[in-house]
Amino acid sequence: MDNIIKLIVGLGNPGNEYANTRHNAGADLVNKLARQHSTQLTPDSKFYGLSGRIFIGTADIRLLIPTTFMNLSGKSLSAIAQFYKIPPESILVAHDELDLPPGVARLKMGGGHGGHNGLKDIIKSLGNIKDFARLRIGIDHPGNAKLVSNYVLKKAPANEYQLIEESIDNALRILPLLVDGEWNKAMKELHTQ
What we know:
Elements: E1 7-10, H1 25-36, E2 42-44, E3 49-56, E4 59-66, H2 73-83, E5 91-97, E6 105-109, H3 117-125, E7 133-138, H4 148-152, H5 158-179, H6 183-191
Helix pairs in contact: 1-5, 2-3, 5-6
């Protein structure tokens, strides 16, 4: 991947009742990244979310946590991407992933939405373009499709939450490689942890 990441978006739902729920793993990653860089994410009505700016090395990175609720994440992402003229291939979307166990984070370039409502709306808002990077944070599957919506909106038990936090930390460690365009190196490092 030649494109350098210029926008990192963390998916989640707004409001205290959703804080630290499985579905907010992406938002948790962006919050943690902002804290590491002593950056305050501030409400921005034109982007329908919380936004901020950090520098990783010399790379100028925009941060975004949509506050539109998960199934309208695309409204927020497309607003900031259009404003700063950031192409889809320079966007990294961090989100919870049912198909991975807690403690595992994986990078993926492009692909479908896999039933994830946040990704579904982002793809739609980008005019059906799927060529953006994803950082998939494992939260595990409840075992039955009917249980998914309730499961993702619950807080994980302490041991599971700790594993999710560890996978977020591992993902944050490889971000400098991503922003330098070292996709394969970042992937290898993250996927062998």
